[in-house]
Automatic annotation (TrEMBL):
<dbReference type="GO" id="GO:0000160">
    <property type="term" value="P:phosphorelay signal transduction system"/>
</dbReference>
<keyword id="KW-0238">DNA-binding</keyword>
<dbReference type="InterPro" id="IPR036388">
    <property type="entry name" value="WH-like_DNA-bd_sf"/>
</dbReference>
<dbReference type="InterPro" id="IPR011006">
    <property type="entry name" value="CheY-like_superfamily"/>
</dbReference>
<dbReference type="Pfam" id="PF00072">
    <property type="entry name" value="Response_reg"/>
</dbReference>
<protein>
    <submittedName>
        <fullName>Response regulator transcription factor</fullName>
    </submittedName>
</protein>
<feature type="domain" description="HTH luxR-type">
    <location>
        <begin position="146"/>
        <end position="211"/>
    </location>
</feature>
<dbReference type="InterPro" id="IPR001789">
    <property type="entry name" value="Sig_transdc_resp-reg_receiver"/>
</dbReference>
<dbReference type="InterPro" id="IPR000792">
    <property type="entry name" value="Tscrpt_reg_LuxR_C"/>
</dbReference>
<dbReference type="InterPro" id="IPR016032">
    <property type="entry name" value="Sig_transdc_resp-reg_C-effctor"/>
</dbReference>
<feature type="modified residue" description="4-aspartylphosphate">
    <location>
        <position position="57"/>
    </location>
</feature>
<feature type="domain" description="Response regulatory">
    <location>
        <begin position="5"/>
        <end position="122"/>
    </location>
</feature>
<dbReference type="InterPro" id="IPR058245">
    <property type="entry name" value="NreC/VraR/RcsB-like_REC"/>
</dbReference>
<keyword id="KW-0597">Phosphoprotein</keyword>
<dbReference type="GO" id="GO:0006355">
    <property type="term" value="P:regulation of DNA-templated transcription"/>
</dbReference>
<dbReference type="InterPro" id="IPR051015">
    <property type="entry name" value="EvgA-like"/>
</dbReference>
<dbReference type="GO" id="GO:0003677">
    <property type="term" value="F:DNA binding"/>
</dbReference>
Length: 223
């Protein structure tokens, strides 16, 4: 049997360790990888073509809402993703499922429920959100279109798009990525084309459709 390779992407070391402990109990022989940012996630994806599962924090550094989920699904369409977040607002859960997450776990989920969800996703089930209410309004058509566009971006184009949202100018992005400004302009042209926009402002507005506003109360909803 092929060894399972599971990636835990979360910027909080303690929660990464907790998830890896849970995974180790379910799959003691699995190769457990970790990432603390979208940049590290991308590097792991490049190094691990045979990923079996991704557990992805909703608020990863370098991501805007569901942008990292959308990009990853484009790169690894057959690898299931479980979104993990303290933000278990019904609208957030529903949008995550609409954008292709196989499941959604609140960070306050008990170990047994977490193990059950992970095992069922690995067995091929989808749309799981144990103990959460996913009956709220789902993803908009615009955000689904933007997600499809992001899924088609190369890793470098995705980095450029993320920095665009952060407000960096072309020359600043070029400096950060250690490439020529002309290269960034070429990436921008392709990003605009895929998003169906004609300016930086339009691109930022389009990408903003994937953002997630945390609700005022992040307490766990009733089971």
């Amino acid at each position: 049997m092929q060894t399972r390779s599971i990636l835990v992407a979360d910027d909080h070391p303690l929660f990464r360790a907790a998830l890896k402990q849970v995974l180790g109990q379910i799959y003691p022989d699995a190769e457990l990888q970790q990432a603390a940012s979208v940049g590290e996630l991308q590097r792991q994806v490049e190094r691990q073509p045979g990923l079996s599962l991704l557990l992805l924090d909703l608020h990863m550094p370098g991501a805007l809402g569901f942008s990292a989920l959308s990009w990853f699904i484009g790169q690894r369409p057959h690898t299931p993703v479980i979104m993990v977040s303290a933000n278990s607002h019904p609208e957030t859960v529903r949008r995550a499922i609409d954008h292709g997450a196989a499941g959604f776990l609140s960070k306050s989920t008990g170990v047994e429920a977490m193990e059950d969800c992970i095992s069922r996703v690995m067995a091929g089930e989808r749309g799981l959100h144990p103990g959460l209410d996913a009956t709220a309004a789902g993803a908009s058509l615009q955000s689904l279109d933007v997600a499809e566009a992001l899924a088609s971006l190369t890793p470098q184009q995705f980095r450029v798009a993320s920095m665009l949202v952060e407000g960096l100018l072309n020359k600043q992005i070029a400096y950060e990525l250690d490439v020529k400004e002309a290269t960034i302009k070429a990436h921008m042209t392709e990003i605009f084309r895929k998003l169906g926009v004609h300016s930086r402002t339009q691109a930022v507005l389009a990408l903003g459709s994937l953002s997630v506003d945390p609700p005022e109360d992040l307490t766990t909803p009733p089971c």
